[in-house]
Amino acid sequence: QVQLVESGGGLVQPGGSLRLSCAASGSIFSISAMGWYRQAPGKRRELVAAITRGGSTNYADSVKGRFTISRDNAMNTLYLQMNTLKPEDTAVYYCNAIIYSVNSWGPGTQVTVSS
């Protein structure tokens, strides 16, 4: 199987930037797509950005133009570059991987955007 561990979360001021990383280990060759989700208190978990092994990307409308998802060639590491951060971006961010239609999740990392 695959193990996912997020890092890079923390406290940042509005307008600032943050880069999240997700380290994948195990059967990473079987991963067909990876993505970032987030969940704020009292809200449903939502897709932020996704990328396939072939490099195709998809973004939530709320982050288009501000966030960029990327990966290394072997999909060992997934990144989320977050720029022009807003307070509404505050949430726990989760790394996701799809392996033969099965979702795997990391434990999450907290991102707080506040003055």
Task: Write a brief caption for the model.
The chain is mainly β.
Describe the model:
- This protein is mainly β and 115 residues long.
- It contains no helices and eleven strands.
- The strands form two sheets. Strands 2, 4, 5, 6, 9, 10 and 11 form a seven-stranded mixed β-sheet that branches.
- It is globular.
Outline the secondary-structure elements:
Layout lengths: L1 E6 L2 E3 L5 E9 L4 E9 L6 E7 L4 E3 L7 E5 L5 E6 L8 E9 L2 E4 L3 E5 L2
Parallel strand pairs: 2-11
Antiparallel strand pairs: 1-3, 3-8, 4-5, 4-9, 5-6, 7-8, 9-10, 9-11
Order of helices and strands: EEEEEEEEEEE
Radius of gyration: 13 Å
Mean model confidence by pLDDT? 95
Assess the beta-strand content as a share of residues. Answer: over 45%
Which structural traits does this protein have?
globular, 57% strand, 11 strands, 7-stranded mixed sheet, 115 residues, 4-stranded antiparallel sheet, mainly beta
